[in-house]
């Protein structure tokens, strides 16, 4: 078996995803939000990435008609720099394309240069700024878009 495996997130994965989010971000979603995303939001699709059979990251998206919005993506700090985020993001893009998505967007903190570099490697381009988007420190979000 490969060291890396990507699959759809299941309800049983919520605690792992929530922990990864807490290790990655200053503001996080509640486990209840993930529960609703997985069980009630027909537009939501979430994936987890496993490294050596441990969940080390996740990515969520909303796919509506031919557009997708990345809701969140995170890799545990101790597993960053191994290409796992790139593998996961590529997987989500491939999934979106296979389901008819033509355009993908996301928001990223203006200070998160590492993530911006990865997204730009996938062809995402700046589309605007959402002023004071993040409630923890009022940081702006850079909106990135790509036609798939």
Structure write-up:
By secondary structure, the protein is α+β, with helices and mostly antiparallel strands. It has one domain: Gcn5-related N-acetyltransferase (GNAT) (Aminopeptidase, 3-Layer(aba) Sandwich), CATH 3.40.630. Helices cover 30% and strands 36% of the residues. The protein has 4 helices and 7 strands. The protein has a 7-stranded mixed beta sheet with strand order 1-2-3-4-5-7-6. The longest helix is centred in the middle third of the chain and has 15 residues, at 84-98. The mean pLDDT is 95.
Termini separation comes to: 31 Å
Strand content: 35-45%
The unreliable regions are none
Return the string of H and E elements.
EHHEEEHEHEE
The CATH superfamily turns out to be Gcn5-related N-acetyltransferase (GNAT)
Secondary-structure class? alpha+beta
Q: Please identify, by name, the CATH architecture.
A: 3-Layer(aba) Sandwich
Short description:
The chain is an alpha+beta fold and 148 residues long.
Supply database-style keywords.
148 residues, alpha+beta, Aminopeptidase, 7-stranded mixed beta sheet, 7 strands, globular
What is the topology?
Layout: E1 4-8, H1 14-24, H2 31-39, E2 44-51, E3 54-64, E4 67-75, H3 84-98, E5 103-109, H4 113-121, E6 125-130, E7 141-147
Parallel strand pairs: 4-5
Antiparallel strand pairs: 1-2, 2-3, 3-4, 5-7, 6-7
